[in-house]
Amino acid sequence: MTQGTILIIDDEAQLRKLLARLLTLEGYTVLEAPDARSAHKLLEKSEVHVILSDVKLPDANGVELTRQLKSSHPDTEILVLTAYGNIADGVQAIKNGAFDYLTKGDDNNRILPLVSKAMDKARLQFRVRSLEEKLGGKHDFSQVIGQSPRILEAVNLARKVAATDATVLLLGETGSGKEVFAQAIHRASARSGQPFVAVNCSAFGKEILESELFGHKAGAFTGAVKDKKGFLEEANNGTIFLDEIGEMALDLQAKLLRVLETREFYKVGDSKPLKVNIRILAATNRDLEKEAEKGTFRADLYYRLSAFMIQLPALNERRQDVPLLADHFLAQLAPKNAKRITGMTAAFRQALENHHWRGNIRELRNVIERAVILADGNELDIDVLPLEFTHPENDGPAPLSLADMEKKHITRVLQAVNGNKTRAAEMLQIGLTTLYNKIKEYNIR
Ligand SMILES: Nc1ncnc2c1ncn2[C@@H]1O[C@H](COP(=O)(O)OP(=O)(O)OP(=O)(O)O)[C@@H](O)[C@H]1O
Description:
Layout: E1 5-9, H1 13-25, E2 29-33, H2 36-45, E3 50-54, E4 56-57, E5 60-61, H3 62-72, E6 77-82, H4 87-95, E7 100-103, H5 108-137, H6 149-162, E8 168-171, H7 178-187, E9 196-200, H8 206-214, E10 215-216, E11 228-229, H9 231-234, E12 239-243, H10 250-262, E13 264-266, E14 273-275, E15 279-284, H11 288-294, H12 299-305, E16 309-311, H13 322-336, E17 343-344, H14 346-354, H15 360-374, E18 379-380, H16 402-416, H17 421-428, H18 432-441
Parallel strand pairs: 1-2, 1-3, 3-6, 6-7, 8-15, 8-16, 9-12, 12-15, 17-18
Antiparallel strand pairs: 4-5, 10-11, 13-14
Helix pairs in contact: 3-4, 6-7, 13-15, 16-17, 17-18
Bound molecules: adenosine-5'-triphosphate.
C-alpha cells in the first residue's frame, strides 16, 4: 500500500528526479510538475496529500502559490523549498499556510522526517473529511429518494436556497418528506456543523410551547425551578425547524414574528431580550394563505414565512417513484428486522402502484415494514399487504367472510410480534382496547 501521494513542483528536472527517487524508495507515490500550471492540472485529477514546491517557478512564486493552494486544497500540506540562506521566504510561506520549509541542499535526514510528519497530518485531515462527508451524507439530498420531475424540481430549489440564510416554508401533505427536506437543507448549508433543532408545534399546549421555544427564568411560573434554555437558544448558530407551524396560537405567532424580524426574544419571565443567530425553516400541511385571509393565521407572519416556499408533491402525484421508494425501504428495513428478503413479486409491486397513498411516504414505509415483519419467504407477496390493498371484487367472491379475514389477520400480526399486544395494536392502527375486544370476540389464543 502506498504511503500517500506527493507532488513535487520544480522546474529543475535534475533536482526533481532526485527527490522523486528518494521519496519513491520510501513508499510514496510521486507526481512531478515543472511549473504551477501543470501542478494545478495534476491536482484536478489526483488526490495529493503533500506538495513540495520550489519558490522560484517559471510561472509563479512558490510562497504566493502556497496561499492559493491552501485555500483550494485545505487538507493538503505544503513544504516549500527555499534557496540557501533565504529564511524570509520560508517564514512568509509558513504565514501563508505552509507546513514548513526546507532549504535546497538539505540532507535526507531533515527531508524525510519532515515529509513524514506533513504526510501524517495530511492523511488524518483527509480521513476526517471523508468521515464527515459520510456522516453528513446520511442527511443530504442523496437521501431524498425520487426521480419524478416534481421531486427533482423541489430538490433543485432546496439545494439553491440551502446555500443562503433565507427562511423557507415547506408545504406538503403529512408524510410527504418535509422534515427530510428541512434536514437536507441544514446539512447542505454553511450551518451544517451546528445544531439542527426540530420542534413539532402541534405536540405542545400553548403555554408549554412558549416556554419550550423561548425558555424561561427560574420562578417564571410554578414548577420553573431553574433557568431553562429554549429551543431557539439551543439552535443558536444552527437551524430551527418549526414543523406544523399552522398549529401555533396567534399570540405566540406574534412573538415568533419578532424573532424573524430581529432575531431577538424574551425568555418567559425575563425582561432582557436575548439575541440568537439562527436560520428558520418551517413546515405546514395547511393552506396558510387561506387561513391568513380568514384571520386564523397571522397574515404578517405568513408573508414573512412565504418569501421562499417549496411545495413537496404528494406521493399520488409522483407514482413513478413508488417502486424506487419501495426498494429503498425494503433494503433498509429487511436487515433492520433481521430478515433475508431479496425482492417483491410483480403482484406486490402492482398493488403498491394501484394504491391511493393518503399517508404519503410515511404510509409506504409502514406498509413495507409491516410486510417485511410478516413475510415468511424471501420475497414480499400480496398476502402480507393490509386488506385494503387486495381487490376481492376483481377476483370473484372472497373465500372468507370479512370477520374471518379480520380474525386471520389479527392472529398473524400477533404471531409476528410474539404476542406483544401494544405493538400489534400499533401495526393494526387500532386502539389497545379495540384489540382486546377483538381478541375476545374472535376467541383468538
Ligand atoms: N424523498 C424521500 N426519500 C426517502 N424517504 C423519505 C422521503 N421523504 C420522506 N421520507 C420518509 O418518510 C417518512 C415521513 O417523512 P417526514 O417525517 O419528513 O414527513 P413530513 O412531511 O415532515 O410529515 P409530517 O407532516 O407528518 O410531519 C420518514 O420516515 C422519512 O424518512
